[in-house]
Amino acid sequence: MSRDTDIRITDVQLTFEPIPFRAPLKFGGRIVDRSISIEVTVQVETRSGHHGIGIGSMPVGNIWAWPSDKLDGDTTTNLMKKFAEETALLYGEFPGYGHPLDIVFQLSAEYHHLGKAISTMKHVDEVMPDLAQLVSASPFDAALHDAFGRANAINCYNGYSSDYVDHDLSEYLDDQFSGEYLDQYTTRDPKAKMPLYHLVGAIDPLTDGDIEKRIDDDLPETLGEWITAEGLTHLKIKLAGDQLDWDIDRVLAIDKVAAEAQSNLRCSAWFYSCDFNEKCPDIQYVIDFLNKIKEASPAAYDRIQYLEQPTSRHIKESSAINVSEASKLKPVVIDEALVDYESLQLSRELGYSGVALKACKGQTESLLMAAAAQKYGMFLCVQDLTCPGYSFLHSASLAARIPTVAAIEGNARQYCPEPNKKWANHYPGMFEITDGTVETALLNGEGLGF
To answer: What is the pTM of this model?
Structure first.
């Protein structure tokens, strides 16, 4: 069906920008102290002749998206940048008009071939993982949705109904979704406010005694200082996953610091998520972890809202671990392993009870997974890729439009806050945290909302 609101791509621009870090971040046994942002601008035209310019931004995030044992970080960074360059050509050559969902759905079918071709071109034995492909392509996806909304003078979340989209969700998922559209799984207005999940990295200082030398840049440095300065009520804890005693001691130490800070703030309710970044050898490790936390501190146990991807992302292999027993204790969400609808279905068979959505996997992919997770009654959260500035606003707009998502993670303000500055003037409620929440009501403009 030809619709006046359909768009065609008229121009694609790509640049890369360095992201300076003020402090290192450790997770999954690896340390990140610098990054690069993929910056994309897409121009479009509707059938009725209206024009729109959309922007997308995302850190490369190679340490998380492509944790290779064969290739060093510089190599995987450069390969992901090359993938972005080839994706720019792919988008620029797309023929005809369409809705962003359909355009991205068609273009994403080329990603796997493109990833293999780049490895061959660069004489690399390892093929780029699906997750790294999604991250590299995600700013193009975001820019296209943003441009679609701006060309049609609407917020893009109000452009996912049958009034704008030719196909129902069965086209992208399966027949369970016949007659359904994304407007049924998103809201017309963003949530007014959302709690912010603050990251506690594996080497982040909890108290003054953990600091060898202060950064002294006027930002908080210890966990207690962060809680006090920003009124934080949600903490995401990075754990080792292969050192049980350390993991238990870390949570209990964090709980002790948090309890003191929250007492001073007269706050009686705060929460944790625990992220093992795939390092747990088996599910018994997770069960033992939870049981020992509960034994040592029932209050700390009760504060744990959910667990993230405790075991390997390679869930399609015969050695994939079933997490059902842990899911009986706390929601266990799939994160690194979630790259498509097939992996979501497989995760359910393996006992995962929740889904971590990330803007870095693409606006289109995130929306489709959000719809499927809601249909299946799964726990939903939106997680971060240490996204600064524009990419954080995109992530927050996604969280604010999905009904069952209760909080949003945002940790660039801790590790790489410099790119936030130019956006903080326009959206102070998103970057200046005082009561532990971000003011997502601000994300209600055209395009992605900001």
So the answer is: 0.96
